[in-house]
Structure formats: C-alpha cells, structure tokens
Amino acid sequence: KSSDEYRSGKEAISSLILNKHLTCERKGTSFERPVWHCLLDDGRDVGCEMIKTGLVEESTKHSKGFYKEC
Q1: CB 22 within 8 A of CB 40
Q2: pLDDT tens-digit series, residues 3-25
Q3: Burial class (CB in 10 A: 0-12, 13-18, 19+), 58
C-alpha cells in the first residue's frame, strides 16, 4: 500500500470511531496479534464499515467469509 492509501485508511477509521463508544470482543489471534470484532453504539460493525469505504478488503482466508454481507 502507498502512503496515500495508508493515510486515507487512517483518516477513514479515525472519522468512524473517534469519540465514539465501541464494544469489542476478542476473537483470537492472527500472525501472533489479537483479532477483535468491534461494534459502534448504533450496531454498525467497524470492519464492515471499513470494507464499505473500499479502502480495505476482506481476507476470506482469515475471516472465513464473516464480512460477505457488507
């Protein structure tokens, strides 16, 4: 990814969650890092919302199609 793509993704996630209450549940680990599933107060899934922006793609190898409904 280019630095512009990284910056756009960072801005998108910041605007989505900044000053918002999140409810997160740890789902396991991937590449020795924790994996979390997070929802906004209004019930929207943070991962799904990021996929909708087009800035990120679902890795079905890891998610097993969890976000196919986004």
Answers
A1: yes
A2: 777 678 888 888 889 999 999 99
A3: middle
